Amino acid sequence: MNLEILVSLLYIVILIYTILRILLDTNSNSKTLAYLLLVLFIPLLGIVLYFSIGINYRHNRYNQKAIALHKELDKAYKNGIQDETQSLLKKHERDLKKYTQLVEFNHRIMGEFLSQNSFHLLVNGEQKFPEVLKMLETAQHFIHMEYYSWENDTRGNQIKEVLLRKAGAGVKVRVLFDDYASRSIRRNIVKELKQGGVDIHPKIKVKLRHFANRVNHRDHRKIIIIDGQIGFVGGINISDRYDNSIDTGLFWRDTHVKFVGPLVHNMQRHFMVSWNSAQETRLEFSKELFPPLKAPEATGTVGLAQMMAGGPIYPMSTIMLTYFKIFTLASRKLYITNPYFIPNESILDALKQSAVSGVDVRLLLPEKSDSAIVGAASRFYFNDLLKSGVRIFLYKKGFVHAKTVVADTMLSIVGTANMDIRSFDLNFEIMSLIYGEEFASKLEKVFLEDLNDSVEVRVEAWKDIGLFKRLIYATARLISSFL
């Protein structure tokens, strides 16, 4: 047997094995078809790309460790923290009646307790960073941070300096960062923080030999926990670009929330799972990390809330299912802001069903995305949505990066999750679900103000975009299946 025949047989064996892996391991129909076409029509390169970026390593060693730690910590958390979910559901039965199933889903599947907290809505980095810097200065016991993107710029160094000061004063500072998105700070800020006594680690260390699967699971969270009393969560990373008081050449629209109350403890357990998975020094459930809570701030908006976390360590697409449930529960209004909108069929159907049923569904997206492929792929879905009655607005003042939802001026989401396959299945995400009219009214007001800086996409005009653009959008949508 000559070498050419041997190589051909080897390629056929590898091709068949790859096809079987795609069919058995890929849950999404569109993604399955996309990868099959890739490996069949682009020999060798298609196979390499699939094994590089296509496999969801949900059951790799890191995730198995995190799953075990999550179960272990959940048991200690449930035994050590008072669960008021059922009593609050009963007490607020009238207001929460529509959302009882959603609360119960988050409670049963994810162990997310319902609790009463106070909230401060923070619009853009110019509101978030001064508040974060002020609150970090108040830390007396510990600071926990988990961030997707951190840059070596003005705000990045201001945060660094506060952490170094607090660590020098005896406050225990623990920081996790995404090794890929924050790679620019490895040789400067990370090094300085380590030298200054800050315990800092990548969530999942990216190494060359397993670059693909590690970079595929990004730590997309942006959270801060101070003394187990104060928490921050939202879409704003640590970077000057999010702060419009610093001229970076582009207006950046984003949303964060500060909260005080039991929700901080809920977020703390998710941080601890990440921390214990990232390195060998374990954090155990203790009264030091879960201290008695102070009363909610009188100046804040008081409301009931739950956390919702997502990522490859969980048994199902919790973020997607939460979005889906909220979209189908809406009866009057549904206002959604998201920068990366590549919905799966379930989310698409939920939005169309709500609009057809008479719900005022409005979707705010960037006019110009920071990813040409994502921006084009999003537009593939416009025709179906517009025909169903969904109103689509494109933000033109700058780039809108907020990930928020307001439903019926009663339920709000402020978090880190985009509306795409990556946030549904691959990334580690976290978002706050806030129940109550007062906070929802504030978030809704911000949404409506953003519409003043947007242009509405009209169904009549969309019919005339032309075959060439439709082909571009369809191609981008296919490519997005690989992202």
Fold and architecture overview:
The chain is α/β, with parallel strands linked by helices and about 475 residues long. It folds into three domains: about 50 residues, no CATH class; about 210 residues, Endonuclease Chain A (Endonuclease, Chain A), CATH 3.30.870.10; about 160 residues, Endonuclease Chain A (Endonuclease, Chain A, 2-Layer Sandwich), CATH 3.30.870. It is built from 20 helices and 17 strands. The strands form two sheets. Strands 4-3-2-5-6-8-1-9-16-15-14-10-11-12-17 form a 15-stranded mixed β-sheet, with helices on both faces. A two-stranded parallel ribbon has the order 7-13. β10, α14 and β11 form a beta-alpha-beta unit. It starts with a helix and ends with a helix. About 0% of the residues have low confidence.
**CATH class term of the largest domain:** Alpha Beta
Radius of gyration: 23 Å
In DSSP terms (H or I, runs of 4 or more residues), the helix count works out at 20
Number of strands: 17
* CATH fold title of the largest domain: Endonuclease, Chain A
Tell me the β content. 15-25%
How many angstroms does the end-to-end distance come to? 41 Å
Give the CATH architecture of the largest domain. 2-Layer Sandwich
Mean pLDDT: 89
Q: Report the helical percentage.
A: 40-55%
What is the global morphology?
A: globular
Number of discrete domains: 3
CATH homology group of the largest domain: Endonuclease Chain A
